[in-house]
């Protein structure tokens, strides 16, 4: 049987990043704590940590163990609260993986309806690369993955990709950058500083091909896996940046930027990936139905 005291020690070390800091929190000596962790690893038959200089880094097995540990102690805290405050309607966890290339505004727009269901839902979001999230989905660690592409066929993972919708692209920029560009879009992008999505984004290749077809050569000054980081650089005046047309209004308001042009020739698509061929999870169904309304074909913002 799992030793939960050892699991608690492991979790504390994983959060602290070093034996010394964890030992101080647990009121143990580093030597004692090191022995406890070694015994726990021996009991499990796997290494949970590797050394990186003075820090301890989690191995793949360690990251998996930490995910379970967080849930175990989270449920324990819920149990304690329920016993202290009396019976209440327990929110069922809805675990969603969000591919790191999916814009945060899109993720919120699609997931918000799940929080309005009659049966309470506790939304648990994890952000990572699609390959890692798909692996967790396959072992039912996630209920759904939001991505900008279908599940790649070369992944040895059983899953089904459900199209949520698509929209065109708006190009936004800080006011100072927009003021330096002429009004003839997309020719106005020629020579302009441009921020583009990273290699994991499904938008990257269509965007570059569209620029090539238009005969426009901007100056690419940055590539970003995280759309929020790209927007922050755009807000600071680093360059023009693309966003899904359906979220352009919200991004303009949030980052105080302006639109310099838009196109329907580039389509950004979004998918809900699940282990179900037919959607049945109430929260996943709510997300799918909401997407039909929020990702409108006319791309109005």
From TrEMBL:
Calcium keyword on record: no
Keyword vocabulary terms for this entry: Activator, DNA-binding, Transcription, Transcription regulation
DNA-binding found in the keyword field: yes
Pfam family, one: HTH_1
Domain of life assignment: Bacteria
Residues covered by the HTH lysR-type domain: 2-59
InterPro entries recorded: LysR_HTH_N (IPR000847), LysR_subst-bd (IPR005119), WH-like_DNA-bd_sf (IPR036388), WH_DNA-bd_sf (IPR036390)
Record family assignment: Belongs to the LysR transcriptional regulatory family.
Protein name according to UniProt: Transcriptional activator NhaR
Organism: Thiobacillus sedimenti
Recorded name of the encoding gene: nhaR
């Amino acid at each position: 049987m799992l030793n939960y005291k050892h699991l608690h020690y492991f979790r504390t070390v994983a959060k602290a990043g070093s034996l010394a800091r964890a030992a101080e929190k647990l009121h143990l000596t580093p030597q004692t704590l090191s022995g406890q962790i070694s015994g726990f690893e021996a009991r499990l038959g796997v290494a949970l940590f590797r050394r990186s200089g003075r820090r301890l880094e989690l191995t793949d097995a360690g990251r998996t163990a930490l995910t379970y540990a967080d849930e175990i102690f989270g449920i324990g805290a819920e149990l304690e609260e329920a016993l202290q405050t009396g019976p209440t309607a327990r929110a069922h966890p809805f675990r969603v993986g969000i591919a790191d290339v999916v814009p945060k505004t899109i993720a919120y727009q699609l997931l918000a309806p799940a929080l309005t269901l009659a049966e309470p839902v506790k939304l648990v979001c994890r952000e990572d690369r699609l390959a890692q999230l798909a692996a967790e989905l396959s072992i039912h660690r996630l209920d759904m993955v939001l991505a900008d592409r279908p599940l790649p066929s070369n992944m040895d993972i059983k899953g089904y990709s459900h199209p949520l919708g698509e929209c065109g692209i708006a190009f936004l920029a800080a006011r100072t950058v927009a003021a330096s560009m002429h009004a003839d879009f997309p020719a106005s992008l020629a020579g302009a500083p441009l921020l583009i999505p990273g290699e994991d984004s499904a938008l990257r290749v269509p965007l570059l091909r569209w620029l090539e077809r238009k005969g426009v050569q901007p100056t690419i000054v940055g590539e970003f896996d995280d759309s929020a980081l790209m927007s922050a650089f755009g807000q600071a005046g680093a360059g023009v940046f693309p966003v899904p047309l359906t979220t352009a209004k919200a991004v303009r308001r949030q980052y105080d930027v302006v639109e310099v042009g838009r196109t329907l020739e580039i389509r950004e698509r979004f998918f809900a990936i699940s282990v179900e061929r037919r959607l049945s999870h109430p929260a996943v169904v709510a997300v799918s139905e909401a997407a039909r309304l929020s990702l409108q074909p006319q791309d109005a913002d």
